[in-house]
């Protein structure tokens, strides 16, 4: 498990690159021209000279759409659309960008996807060793799937950032959004008043040390934890007390960090020691929704495979977030943004996503192997799915009919719009499919976005189509439905329909 500040932000130094290293292949499935897709490597220059450090380069200018990196203690690959970015690009920038994190050094080199700061562009990672054997994959679905789900969270629309070319550049996480954008966790913290908790965990440092700390929440959510620490091969001894004020705790759950004291002394930002691990587990327990939940308030009960030394070696793996509750409380009792990221993706959803979940967010890599980074498209088509499957899914969302009855007013209802799932501006275009009206536009219709009620998606026939129906009684046609969703996402599906007089 990662210590405070380390799990989600891989920032660091470099050492001299060897002649051969990790080959990073970029598979552009974004639907955008490679000339308008930019890559930027942060942490070091590529060892083959194709990518300078912190300088954006068009994907079209990178030979073979691949590059090689040497020994990078930690680094990031940024992908942006339409313009270059730097590693200091603000999350409010109108340029649409996102990143992949990786490190090629140490005993366990890894890569990971992250939505800790925001969600803007989805990726898929595929890792292979030097012999080409598969080491695993991590993936995010199409932009539409994730953004539409995040926008269901109350207040999440205030976390969106407009893109310069229209649409949405990204949806910011709670830690980078304006205060109180997302639902407050204050009621959750206060609900723990009078409850005693026990944190049993481990610090994976030098030396490896386990700890067992307990405390009881005050009425305002404040808590002082006391307990023992046991270094590997050593004896248990009392540790210093760790205290957290309730007023800071709810914001810290979202941010993954906040003020606390150890032995009465205020802690510096992002320390990496045993006490940061205790604080991490306190905060992460709230984010996962475990505290006050169905498994009790002892962290060892949150995993199915506890180590005899008193910690969960693979993290907390019992069902979390909403599933950690026997009944739903009247307040928000978990990190809702992280819950959606966890449900839909293999990415970090908050700073301590590696403390739990049934998923493993870190992907092993071979420093002499290959990491394929696929830039996933914006539409609703599932990874590996056919266009027909994507069309069917969208048309099913809209309740599109295959036989449409035209009324006396020359209008017809071809489906039903609601938000969610079919959020966005809807346009319908119907053309003749055979005979004298083949390829002619015979009907059009529109529907606005953000309608929370299910309402008709209507079209009006052209005068020529009206005359044709009056003579023939039925018109075979092709209908194309276009949905422009948040995030500059455009979904389009076509189906055959029959227009008939009522």
Automatic annotation (TrEMBL):
The protein's matches in InterPro entries, at most eight in alphabetical order, are given as: Glyco_hydro_64, Osmotin/thaumatin-like_sf
Q: Which residues form the signal peptide?
A: 1-21
Domain named GH64 is located at: 1-375
Q: Does the keyword Ubl conjugation apply?
A: no
The UniProt entry, under PROSITE patterns, shows: GH64
Q: Region (Disordered) spans which residues?
A: 162-181
Among the Pfam families in the record, one is Glyco_hydro_64
Q: This chain belongs to which protein, by name?
A: GH64 domain-containing protein
């Amino acid at each position: 498990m990662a210590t405070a500040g380390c799990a989600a932000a891989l920032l660091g130094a470099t050492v001299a690159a060897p002649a051969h290293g990790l080959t990073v292949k970029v598979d552009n499935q974004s639907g955008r021209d490679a000339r308008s897709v930019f890559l930027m490597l942060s942490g070091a220059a590529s060892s083959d000279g194709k990518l300078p450090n912190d300088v954006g380069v068009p994907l079209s200018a990178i030979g073979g759409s691949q590059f090689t990196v040497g020994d990078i203690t930690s680094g990031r690959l940024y992908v942006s659309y339409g313009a270059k970015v730097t590693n200091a690009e603000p999350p409010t920038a109108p340029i649409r960008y996102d990143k992949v994190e990786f490190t090629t050094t140490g005993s366990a080199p890894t890569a990971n996807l992250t939505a800790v700061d925001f969600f803007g562009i989805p990726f898929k990672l595929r890792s292979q060793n030097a012999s080409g054997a598969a080491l695993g994959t991590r993936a995010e679905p199409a932009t539409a799937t994730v953004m539409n789900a995040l926008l269901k969270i109350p207040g999440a629309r205030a976390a969106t950032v407009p893109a310069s070319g229209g649409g949405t550049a990204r949806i910011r996480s709670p830690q980078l959004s304006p205060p109180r954008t997302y639902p407050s966790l204050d009621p959750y913290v206060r609900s723990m008043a009078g409850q005693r908790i026990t944190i049993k965990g481990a610090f994976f440092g030098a030396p490896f040390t386990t700890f067992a700390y307990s405390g009881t929440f005050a009425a305002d959510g404040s808590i002082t934890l006391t307990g023992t620490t046991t270094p590997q091969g050593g004896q248990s001894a009392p540790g210093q007390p760790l205290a957290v004020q309730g007023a800071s705790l709810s914001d810290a759950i979202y941010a993954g960090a906040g003020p606390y004291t150890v032995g009465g002394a205020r802690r510096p930002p992002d320390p990496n020691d045993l006490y940061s691990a205790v604080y991490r587990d306190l905060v992460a327990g709230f984010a996962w929704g475990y505290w006050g939940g169905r498994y009790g308030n002892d962290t060892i009960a949150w995993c199915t495979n506890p180590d005899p030394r008193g910690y969960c070696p693979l993290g907390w793996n019992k069902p979390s977030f909403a599933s950690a509750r026997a009944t739903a409380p009247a307040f928000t009792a978990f990190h809702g943004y992280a819950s959606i990221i966890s449900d839909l993706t293999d990415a970090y959803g908050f700073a301590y996503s590696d403390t739990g979940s049934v998923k493993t967010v870190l992907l092993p890599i071979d420093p002499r192997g290959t990491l394929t980074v696929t830039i996933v498209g914006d539409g609703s088509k599932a990874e590996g799915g056919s266009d027909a499957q994507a069309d069917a899914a969208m048309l099913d969302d809209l309740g599109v009919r295959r036989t449409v009855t035209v009324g006396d007013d020359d209008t017809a209802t071809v489906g039903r719009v609601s938000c969610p799932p079919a959020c966005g501006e809807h346009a319908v275009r119907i053309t003749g499919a055979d005979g004298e009206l083949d390829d002619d536009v015979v009907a059009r219709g529109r529907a606005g976005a953000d309608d929370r009620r299910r309402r008709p998606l209507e079209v009006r026939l052209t005068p020529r189509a009206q005359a044709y129906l009056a003579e023939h009684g039925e018109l075979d046609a092709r209908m194309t439905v276009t949905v422009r969703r948040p995030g500059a996402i455009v979904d389009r599906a076509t189906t055959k329909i029959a227009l008939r007089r009522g």
